[in-house]
Amino acid sequence: MDSTSRPPETDAPAEAVPPAAAAAPAAKGDVEITRPRNDKRGYRRVVLPNDLECLLVSDPDTDKAAASMNVSVGYFCDPEGLEGLAHFLEHMLFYASEKYPIEDSYSKYITEHGGSTNAFTTCEHTNFFFDVNHDCLDDALDRFAQFFIKPLLSADATLREIKAVDSENQKNLLSDPWRMNQLQNHISLESHPYHKFGTGNWDTLEVKPKEKGLDTRLELIKFYDSHYSANLMQLVVYGKESLDNLQTLVENKFCGVKNTGRERFSFPGHPCSSEHLQVLVKAVPIKQGHTLRILWPITPNIRHYKEGPCKYVSHLIGHEGEGSLFYVLKKLGWAMSLEAGEGDWSYEFSFFSVVIKLTDVGHEHMEDIVGLLFRYITLLQTSGTPKWIFDELQTICETGFHYRDKSPPIHYVANISSNMQIYPPEDWLIASSVPSKFSPDAIQGILNELTPDNVRIFWESKKFEGQTNLTEPWYGTSYSVEAVPPSIIQKWVEKAPVEDLHMPKPNIFLPSDLSLKNAEKASFPCMLRKTLFSRVWYKPDTMFFTPKAYIKMDFHCPLSRSSPESSVLTDVFTRLLMDYLNDYAYDAQVAGLYYGVRPNDTGFQITMVGYNDKMRTLLETVIGKIAEFEVKADRFSVIKETITKEYENFKFRQPYQQAFYYCSLILEEQTWAWDEELAAVSQIEASDLEKFLPHLLGKTFIESYFAGNMEPGAVKGVMQHVEDILFNAPVSLCKALLSSQHLTKRIVKLERGLRYYYPALCLNHQDENSCLLHYIQIHQDDLKKNVLLQLLALVAKQPAFHQLRSVEQLGYITLLRQKNDSGVRGLQFIIQSTVKDPANLDARVEAFLTMFEGTLYQMPDTEFKSNVNALIDMKLEKYKNIREESAFFWGEISEGTLKFDRKEVEVAALRDLKKEELIEFFNNHVKVNAPQKKILSIQVYGGLHSSEYEKIVHDEPQPNSYQITDIFSFRRSRPLYGSYKGGVGQMKL
Ligand SMILES: [Zn+2]
What we know:
By secondary structure, this protein is α+β, with helices and mostly antiparallel strands.
């Protein structure tokens, strides 16, 4: 797979962004910004007198406003010995400002007006962003601007927030992506900032500075004053207002940002010198599995982004079709996945990387794999860079740009403000997404850099345990380094097996018909067709006017989850199907037509989304593969190995993920324990799958949803074809379900007035983090209660975060949110912590609820009304693309609730809501000791709290508390909520 265009992870200092000095000349005046053909929004570039560069986006159709500020300062700027200071400053700016001194008032305002906030720090920039209901932009922006004008950075908050940064680092310590990333940084020049540790922890931000007589807060202020300057910032503001009004708004709010004329930070030179090249680094990961990362320093693509040489090269090296490197490695049973593309990059330096997940057998053939990779590179170097491949790529990228789905404004602004630092204004939207100039020289230039002289090979496997002699200091990763001179690689190339590597064939999935069909007006899906075998829901596109469609197809197979074995076999079946399809259908993904086949609660599911032009061809191929499915023993064993490793790695999941797992296991009927599934997968053989499949598919019902640029007649035709292949063939694979066989997923009903708790030791004893999941079960789908719950969650979310994270500093992951399992709804608090054990965290949640009682009772009517209005605005928000729309309607179909007008009805209910009703709801269901209260407390005890675990499992339960010791006997003993599938007035099957 081509990995060049992956979005950066929020708050992950893994993705580098270059300084813009050389790329973006500060031209003033109007510039024509290249935009998608159908983009009706208004754009204007403005430079304020303080040199702050802004892009205004006016969208009369938007329901949300948003803004993002990119600051060209990242952790590369951290002072020596104060690792993580830039990232820490990012955290601190959220607290308070001179104008808004109340702690967290920015986040409170945004949350209470339907929005959200976030930020991330990378090596060369820090990005802050939010969205909010469109009519609150003025007030939100006023608070946001103060980050960059006069933040408070109080001493008290500084000390507390260092704990949040430390907790964030604790969360990453046992995570392989973080560990391996730092290892690559570590094996580089100490004098280059690439070498740095960017997150920070208690030691680097508190202990070490103190030892040296430094005050972290003063250093923070110093850093802010000397680095944050208006000329190093890029702002994007997105609103419903006209461009003129947005401009006035921005001028008023941001003219006070100080411009110190600070020069752009630049970090010339490459982080790797000769001693960091021609190396083979063996590293021991936390998880099972073997990964090979082959990297080369290259000329950054950004310097030739119109030619896009890296796009061309990664398209080919990452290709998965017949004749590709991955195709060959897969055929040999050596690789599970392959990704290629430009990795860490800036304007000064860059790496091209090929990341291959190896099978156990592949691990034994590392040298052959590297040999084949170099052989493929030689093939590319000598094949004369065919122009048709460039043309094809250009067409795909151009179509992708012009028919780009509208994305949530919060993502849109953060993306553009990051681009502004890098590209000239006319390319702020298009960035490097479309290569437009064919340059064989630029492509050859990159290929010529992918040589054995330049290579760095990182090879990770548990098998290296005990064979390494070095330790990376920040994460403690064990590793060793060996030299690999080009002569050795040459030997590997020579001895690698002879395989038929060649260039790909032209892509047959390029959409050629992008016309729009004439659709009838329809606000909701309708049932288009119904037979004994299937049911089809249909919703034409009446909103987005793009040549795209969306298909969901649920195969209800009663046997799919009847035991841990069948659950695992169903999983293997869907993965094999994807595996068989890959050679042929990889091209569809490249051309913007995505598909997936995955197991789900009632069987398995096909999803397709993208250009509608070739969708039918692809769907019919998938159905054809199901009909003629054969178990291939060699691929079976690779898939079995993959799944086995995934189960084995289950114990290395974050404690909060383990808590989610226990919660589902306790509440959901027909779920199996991971260790039972692991035991099952180790027993199964290819012959078991052969025997199982006729039973799995033997009784099937298909529930499907077609939406977008498709006509009803065509949809009916597709479904008739599907039935003909699967149900009506002379020897048919599938037969109709009996009415007694329809599946439902049902949820355990907890007991009123009781508090259930389930203590468990963290599966990875080395993990010091503990986690509490405090779940309050409230009701099953009910209009009035739904809106009361949503309103309560909206009102309580920010106070909970403020108290439990900002004030008490229990842990970086601290949140309150709604929970909805098949229509059964409630609230859940999640806290991951090294500070307190889960039972204590539980007590803190209850203490918060007691405190919140007062807040709620004393809430002024105006505040109540404003929260209600915010929730109404959130509900009335229009769908931005077909995925969003389909997610909602398909949710109603798959749950069986079929309330397509849910939002409208809930808005009507909200308009009548009184504050007393909210208080009554809280008093009945949520308040500590509320009469109707039903609690399930999942407590995962980490390494620091194992003695507390011993105590809680042996202590007598408190009054009205019940300790769950055996999940399955508990689950059997409880009544279940009814299912909406087949209930009175609900969907009939
Ligand atoms: Zn952070």
